[in-house]
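Input record, target 12 of the design panel.
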């Protein structure tokens, strides 16, 4: 059987965890990639098949969607490009409240000068306590606490949307 990411120990680990062999799967992609992974040679010299890139993109999309659909989350934060607002959702007692936060307010809160047209390119919730933003002006890893974002919303920094 092809092992796209190397021989690994999936079956051994599954057995230790009490998971049957039917709980382990393999993806037959490219033997060269598997061999390079086994020898630590995965890098620029290994041409990754388009199917591998497409599969990776699909996995990231599915994980992202699953995480945002979870019902046990305390908060969710997303950038809505169509309205140019960050939507902060808080879940309490089976209900959800949504607060729009203007991108302009976030730019001002960054603590450094930012172009007027800078927009979030990535919004990542870290646990239920922090949110990391990357921006179109190439500023990376701007961190806000969830409490800070909710406070900004409460103070009226939000924008209708």
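The sequence produced for target 12 reads:
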């Amino acid at each position: 059987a092809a092992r796209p990411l190397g021989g690994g120990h999936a079956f051994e680990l599954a057995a230790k965890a009490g998971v049957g062999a039917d709980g382990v799967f393999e993806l037959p992609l490219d033997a060269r990639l598997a061999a390079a992974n086994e020898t630590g040679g995965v890098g620029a010299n290994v041409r990754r098949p388009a199917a591998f890139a497409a599969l990776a993109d699909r996995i990231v999309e599915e994980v992202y969607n699953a995480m945002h659909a979870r019902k046990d989350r305390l908060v969710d934060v997303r950038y809505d490009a169509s309205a140019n607002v960050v939507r902060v959702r808080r879940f309490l007692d089976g209900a959800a409240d949504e607060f729009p936060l203007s991108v302009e307010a976030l730019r001002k809160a960054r603590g450094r000068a930012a172009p007027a047209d800078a927009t979030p390119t990535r919004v990542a919730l870290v646990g239920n306590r922090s949110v990391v933003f990357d921006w179109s002006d190439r500023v990376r890893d701007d961190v806000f606490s969830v409490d800070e974002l909710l406070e900004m919303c409460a103070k009226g920094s939000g924008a209708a949307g």
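The chain has a mean pLDDT of 76.
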